[in-house]
Amino acid sequence: MLSKSHIKLITSLKQKKYRLQHGFFVVEGVKTIKELLQSKLILHALYTTESFNIDAKNEILITEVELKRISFLTTPNKALAIFKIPEAKSIGENGLILALDAVRDPGNLGTIIRLCDWFGVKDLVCSKETVDCFNPKVIQATMGSITRVNISYVDLERFLNETGLPIYGAFMDGETVYDIQLPEKGILVMGNEANGVSKEVEAFINTKVSIPRFGDLQATESLNVATATAILLNEFRRVNF
Amino acid sequence: MLSKSHIKLITSLKQKKYRLQHGFFVVEGVKTIKELLQSKLILHALYTTESFNIDAKNEILITEVELKRISFLTTPNKALAIFKIPEAKSIGENGLILALDAVRDPGNLGTIIRLCDWFGVKDLVCSKETVDCFNPKVIQATMGSITRVNISYVDLERFLNETGLPIYGAFMDGETVYDIQLPEKGILVMGNEANGVSKEVEAFINTKVSIPRFGDLQATESLNVATATAILLNEFRRVNF
């Protein structure tokens, strides 16, 4: 049974303000919820149309109609769970770190979190202007990878100012990434979808890198930030393979 | 002024059946429409809230309210145009060709078309089960790249059977792409989002390639097909840079 207070809480968690206030976020779909249950994340409540056979005090069986009322998806997928937002761990300085300067699109951030997981990037550092990683659309796009990447929201300029690692940034007019001896340890900064890396953050970049274009050089479009991140993380890893 | 027959035609073009029947597709947004106007595509009609200063017989000035009625977008962007679907040119056999085996998501196909444009892949060959490239969501995601890539829908098995080019395919259990001497000319096959390359198509693959995973090897998720395409096209290009 679904009470009014449950519905009110779940609906509020669409908004960052209430996620921060309550310290909870929403996950949907059997597969992703199961993956999160196996992680260190703490379950607050599970609303499901079929039992997961977990501790009954956290599991609330509901009907399809009830699920449709609380789901953020057009096609709800059997279950919705509320988990506690974990505390971010301190940022390691012992590997490759990805930093995002105001990436706004939830789908892009979700894809980028999956890429960090794939390429073994333990730390994802986001500027305060980057979309919240506990946004339901981001969670949906990460497919469980969010449990394996440490995501910190920081004052990016301050972080870059204080690090001892070399700082690389993706630019349209950077050096060809194929020609650069990329290190095992360092920071790669990716910029906003429309404006790229901001002037303020650019001041901290040691090496500007770019992905060569092979098509019609007259065309002005850039690569999408998620696909550019895929290519550049692959470049960092391949040289140390 | 917007007549009922205009509205009926535009609305019908959301569906592939009617796009094929009429031979038209819809493009939205000032920037993309301007880019398509500069290409070889033939404009059928332009519905816009502000004049583009083009031949008046093709331009119909409408109000914001009228645009909202015909737009496929939640936030319409000043103009909507109908273009003629171009005839596919014959497939060249003199470079790198990308082939898609039942890629279903319009956003993925749009991103992949942009990647072909970036990496100078002139021919994109799609199985009949691949989402239609004139689907409005694909067009929206291509950002004009669709004018620079020759897209053919074919019987993929037959095409692969008849080509003289070496055929590479992306698989989870393929050889590490870093270890393979990739050629300048060849075909790269990418599979469906959920099932990868089908058994039928797999029979034609000469070399299975995979992108090494560096993160938690227990995790089972694969890369998204668009990001995997980005990485593999970059790999094909970098060796011949």
UniProtKB/TrEMBL annotation, chains A, B:
A Pfam entry, by short name: SpoU_methylase
Protein name: RNA methyltransferase
GO biological processes: methylation
Family: Belongs to the class IV-like SAM-binding methyltransferase superfamily. RNA methyltransferase TrmH family.
Keywords: Methyltransferase, Transferase
Cross-referenced CDD domains: SpoU-like_RNA-MTase
GO MF: methyltransferase activity
Span of domain MRM3-like substrate binding: 5-81
Record InterPro entries: Alpha/beta_knot_MTases, MRM3-like_sub_bind, Ribosomal_eL30-like_sf, rRNA_Methyltransferase, SpoU_MeTrfase, tRNA_m1G_MTases_N
Signal peptide: none
Keyword Transferase recorded: yes
Domain tRNA/rRNA methyltransferase SpoU type, first and last residues per copy: 96-233
